[in-house]
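**Backbone description:**
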Amino acid sequence: MMTMEKAQLIIEAAIVKAKEIGQPMNIAVVDAGTNLTAFVRMDGAWLGSIDIAINKAFTARAFDISTLELGRNSQPGDQFFGIHVSNHARVMIFAGGVPLKVNGQIVGAVGISGGSGAQDQAVAEAAAACS
């Protein structure tokens, strides 16, 4: 189960990694039902990335797959082409959303936005590693 305390630890891990790479981020954590549990906008993070971070977390939990992997499978001709327009266009198909697992069970997801795809993914993976 995703608790507020657990979400805060995930956010703290994301902040540490974001500071390490020198990129302020928007960080969202959702529970198993895709409900927003916690959100932080680091000082200087892009305002336009707030919704993106939240939607990356939603996507990672809604489909139980990283947004990076979903993006790889949603290119023209691939099995999930066009998925980004589903769910009222909330689906994100680029790096930075990662499901959160405890004992092999998905309990939520984290969404990161504010840098390059590689930066967002690195921060999301660091955050997920503490779950």
Remarks:
- Residues 24 and 73 are 28 Å apart (CA to CA).
- The domain at 4-129 is CATH 3.30.450.150 (Beta-Lactamase).
- DSSP finds four helices and four strands in the chain.
- The longest strand covers residues 105-113.
